[in-house]
Amino acid sequence: MLLRRLLKDEEGQTLVEYGLLLALIALVVIAALTVLGQKIATTFNTISQELPEVGGGGGD
Prior knowledge:
Elements: H1 2-8, H2 11-50
């Protein structure tokens, strides 16, 4: 009787589907960052080397 009620209950299935969807999105984001991570780091390093040095402190 309890098993039959659980099989008909759709709220648990929806929660599982959302969990699987969230896990899939997380995997895609991790894969994209892994592939693009080095290229992004190289781009930021190139930009930081091209920017002029800014002196700190006051103008005394």
